[in-house]
Amino acid sequence: MDKLQISPKAKALIFDLDGTLADTMPTHYLSWQKVAEKYGFEFDENWFYELGGVPTKQITVLINERYNLTLDPIKIEEEKEGYYLELEKDVQPILPVVGILNEYKDKMPISCGTGNIREIALPTLENIGLGGVFKILVTAEDVKHPKPSPETFLKCAEQMGVEPEFCQVFEDGNPGLQAAREAGMIPTDVRPFLK
Question: pLDDT tens across 59-99, in order?
Fold first, then answer.
């Protein structure tokens, strides 16, 4: 299989945003680098990529544990997302995934389930030409338990009115793929198609 495909079982599609529809991960990493510089810690790039799909506040908690810091998750989220908004105009769409979305958006229900906050997700979608495409957008503010919990994707399925087993999830992060599996959905790792 050399290109992304829809499962024959799929009746609805759920897309992650960062690293799946939009090539935002390098921009998010640059934003975290600015935070790390300001607060004097070294944010390992490999570790950052392992955290794909984890919300900013939760990453701050993990940073505190890892580096023995006491950063305020709410304050850090504001600062980090502020840096991101300054940099995000350069974000590009991830064409293999956006191609699938465009091909199927009028044929079956679609939704976007992101670990990001709405204030960041909406301009990101706008920047990559997908503003207004998703009527259903589940963000970090809409769930109590972010990925790897299945709650984000289960909310997407519920709002689309489709049973989880018939939802195909497009993801680039291990936490999101785990969430899709735990939700009983059809997980699709987009990373092999992004080379």
Answer: 999 999 999 999 999 999 999 999 999 998 889 999 999 99
Whether 129 and 151 map to the same domain: the answer is: yes
Q: Are residues 142 and 51 in the same domain?
A: no
> Residue 146 corresponds to which amino acid?
P
Q: Domain of 49: which CATH number?
A: 1.10.150
Are 65 and 140 in a shared domain? Answer: no
What local confidence, expressed as pLDDT, does residue 1 receive? 53
Cα gap 107→11, rounded to integer Å: 9
Sole residue written with tokens 């993990």:
62
- How high is the mean pLDDT of the chain? 94
16 is catalytic: yes
Identify the CATH number of the domain in which residue 102 sits. Answer: 3.40.50.1000
Place of tokens 């599996």: 181
Q: How far apart are CA 45 and CA 147, in angstroms?
A: 20
108 and 18: one domain? Answer: yes
Which residue out of 16, 18, 23, 172 is catalytically annotated?
A: 16
pTM for the whole structure: 0.88
Predicted confidence at residue 88, as pLDDT, reads 86
100 and 173 inside one domain: yes
Distance between CA 33 and CA 10 in Å, rounded? 39
Q: What's the number of CA atoms in the CB half-sphere (13 Å) around residue 30?
A: 14
